[in-house]
């Protein structure tokens, strides 16, 4: 039976692209760069074709596609990251990479799915994940395993918290949804495709989502660059926002050519 609604479409797109990426990952490549390139290209091609077939009237904003200004006048825009965490994807046996598929509709995120294909897991807004109970322990902050930002290290020190290293942005956000971390704080800048689907799923699970100053996250903007992001358990939002407000302002982050800052 074909998917019946936008939530199921998002789930189906993300799961199917993830299954394709698992196949791509199993091939033999000359080096990690070639594996990354093949993953990005084939997942993007697959999602573009499926969206064109099933949602021909909707616009698309994808990390791997050319940005078409027509999306700004569209009522519905799919915001897609065909492969989030290319470094992790290219490394054998790592599971912390993802596929993001979100639908923006008339000003709001309306549906979303984050697939973690190496775990055989997809979290989506059609079946909102149940947020695990809070644990009586130091605040756990999901952070990049390769380049933990000073902001999050300083925040952990201020709160007496712990850093939980992992790969892609989607995996970090889903770690909060799954109860593996308490917050994902990112001040280094991202593109909309890095966070749209994770934010949609996090909201469905009842998590707090905002900019680091507490203002709303906006999607399908003329400039798809988002300077910062907070996803956290709702009972921690005020504490984290207050602590972040007291910290020194960092210089505006430089933009990568693609959404690689996680």
From TrEMBL:
Keywords: Magnesium, Metal-binding. Mg(2+) binds at residues 63, 81, 83-84, 194. It holds the Pfam family Inositol_P. GO terms for biological process: 3'-phosphoadenosine 5'-phosphosulfate metabolic process; sulfate assimilation. SUPFAM superfamilies: Carbohydrate phosphatase (SSF56655). Its cofactor is Mg(2+). GO terms for molecular function: 3'(2'),5'-bisphosphate nucleotidase activity; metal ion binding. It catalyses: adenosine 3',5'-bisphosphate + H2O = AMP + phosphate. This is 3'(2'),5-bisphosphonucleoside 3'(2')-phosphohydrolase.
